[in-house]
């Protein structure tokens, strides 16, 4: 009788166990499938992997011994951490910037030395390291280079803030992300928060601003203020812009050090050309002084393009001579040693004419934009 009573109970228990197992299996399978096809989840995983990679690089170089782990960060900080730039990926120092002597001196005196010798500078109540720095001037003249060199010289960590992510609908929760920028910087200080094209993000507030954007800007400023009043934090917001006149006045007030990085003059253009061509073969007939004189109005990046395009034209000439209409694979290895790879006057002349022409086209297209007058 007892046995007969127990038998159905065992069956019931078996059924319950099977039911639970099937339910659990279905749940985890469904979860796995959703995680595989959900784009948001996939993006979060990518961010996590990228953040982990960047943190690993940072920790490897960290001499203070204080490691920052992925587990120390919340979801929003992780999204920002994916935009960290490891020191080995920056690799730009003063030696990589030609000209701009006054700017370098100013940055050294007002920023680098005070950051590197904080104890000494703290002795004076008159001095405080600027928590906000603005680099402004025409495009391609070295603003980003200066920002990177500051990070390298001071060995500070570098968040290259991609402002579009703060307003991106995929990330959502703009305000939490804005907060995460500062909390992450706090966790890994000394740290530079670099905002390129800061005018596009923190432009003068207007009625046309979306409510969420306006709130995020306000929050950003509040967090920045927290930084400015904290005496023991070593976090600097470094902004770069081509259009300083578009930046909100309240933001400009938070950036006491404002440096104009203008177009290079003749002597600076010569320095830049020498730096760019340092490791290239250049024929002795090429007069770099003359080239510097003929490139009035060129930015550093225009000069780089000039040299690159001269090299392209030279290589084309070499290839035409070597290969002609022949088969590249067959002929190249045999005559390679005989090639003259030195850039010559003709290469530069061709490249200069091409660049001047394209600059002219650009200028006529953007007649209303007159950078020179704005500064
Ligand atoms: N002073 C300089 N010395 C050496 N190279 C320079 C200099 N200025 C510009 N360059 C060259 O131009 C490139 C662009 O410079 P950079 O990105 O710093 O310009 P930018 O002012 O930040 O421009 P944008 O406003 O377009 O962001 C550099 O990678 C470098 O090759």
Automatic annotation (TrEMBL):
<dbReference type="GO" id="GO:0016887">
    <property type="term" value="F:ATP hydrolysis activity"/>
</dbReference>
<feature type="domain" description="AAA+ ATPase">
    <location>
        <begin position="129"/>
        <end position="265"/>
    </location>
</feature>
<keyword id="KW-0067">ATP-binding</keyword>
<comment type="similarity">
    <text>Belongs to the AAA ATPase family.</text>
</comment>
<keyword id="KW-1000">Mitochondrion outer membrane</keyword>
<dbReference type="InterPro" id="IPR041569">
    <property type="entry name" value="AAA_lid_3"/>
</dbReference>
<dbReference type="GO" id="GO:0005741">
    <property type="term" value="C:mitochondrial outer membrane"/>
</dbReference>
<dbReference type="InterPro" id="IPR003593">
    <property type="entry name" value="AAA+_ATPase"/>
</dbReference>
<protein>
    <submittedName>
        <fullName>ATPase family AAA domain-containing protein 1-B</fullName>
    </submittedName>
</protein>
<keyword id="KW-0547">Nucleotide-binding</keyword>
<dbReference type="InterPro" id="IPR027417">
    <property type="entry name" value="P-loop_NTPase"/>
</dbReference>
<dbReference type="InterPro" id="IPR003960">
    <property type="entry name" value="ATPase_AAA_CS"/>
</dbReference>
<dbReference type="InterPro" id="IPR051701">
    <property type="entry name" value="Mito_OM_Translocase_MSP1"/>
</dbReference>
<dbReference type="GO" id="GO:0005524">
    <property type="term" value="F:ATP binding"/>
</dbReference>
<dbReference type="GO" id="GO:0140570">
    <property type="term" value="P:extraction of mislocalized protein from mitochondrial outer membrane"/>
</dbReference>
<dbReference type="Pfam" id="PF00004">
    <property type="entry name" value="AAA"/>
</dbReference>
<keyword id="KW-0472">Membrane</keyword>
<dbReference type="InterPro" id="IPR003959">
    <property type="entry name" value="ATPase_AAA_core"/>
</dbReference>
<keyword id="KW-0496">Mitochondrion</keyword>
<dbReference type="Pfam" id="PF17862">
    <property type="entry name" value="AAA_lid_3"/>
</dbReference>
């Amino acid at each position: 009788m007892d046995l007969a009573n127990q038998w159905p109970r065992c069956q019931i228990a078996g059924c319950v166990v099977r039911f639970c197992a099937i339910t659990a299996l279905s749940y985890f399978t469904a979860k796995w499938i959703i995680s595989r096809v959900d784009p948001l989840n996939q993006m979060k995983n990518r961010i996590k992997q990228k953040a982990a990679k960047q943190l690993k690089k940072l920790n490897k170089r960290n001499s203070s011994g204080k490691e920052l782990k992925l587990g120390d960060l919340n979801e929003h900080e992780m999204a920002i951490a994916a935009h960290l730039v490891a020191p080995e990926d920056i690799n730009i120092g003063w030696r990589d910037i030609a000209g701009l002597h006054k700017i370098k001196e100013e940055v050294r005196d007002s920023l680098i030395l005070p950051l590197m010798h904080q104890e000494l500078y703290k002795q004076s109540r008159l001095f405080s390291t600027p928590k906000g720095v603005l680099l402004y001037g025409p495009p391609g003249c070295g603003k980003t280079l200066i920002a990177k060199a500051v990070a390298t010289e001071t060995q500070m960590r570098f968040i290259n803030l991609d402002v579009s992510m703060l307003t991106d609908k995929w990330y959502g929760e703009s305000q939490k992300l804005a907060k995460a920028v500062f909390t992450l910087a706090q966790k890994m200080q000394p740290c530079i928060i670099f905002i390129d094209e800061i005018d596009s993000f923190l432009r003068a507030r207007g009625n046309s601003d979306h409510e969420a954007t306006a709130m995020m800007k306000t929050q950003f400023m509040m967090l920045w203020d927290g930084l400015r009043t904290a005496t023991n934090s070593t976090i600097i917001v470094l902004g770069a812009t081509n259009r300083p006149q578009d930046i909100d006045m309240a933001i400009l007030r938070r950036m006491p050090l404002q440096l104009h990085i203008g177009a290079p003059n003749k002597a600076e253009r010569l320095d830049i050309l020498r730096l760019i061509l340092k490791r290239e073969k250049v024929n002795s007939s090429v007069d770099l002084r003359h080239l510097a004189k003929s490139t009035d109005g060129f930015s550093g990046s225009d000069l780089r393009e000039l040299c690159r395009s001269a090299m392209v034209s030279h290589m084309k000439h070499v290839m035409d001579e070597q290969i002609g209409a022949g088969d590249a694979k067959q002929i190249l290895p045999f005559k390679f040693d005989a090639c003259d790879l030195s850039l010559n006057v003709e290469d530069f002349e061709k490249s200069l004419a091409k660049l001047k022409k394209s600059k002219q086209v650009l200028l006529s297209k953007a007649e209303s934009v007159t950078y020179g007058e704005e500064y």
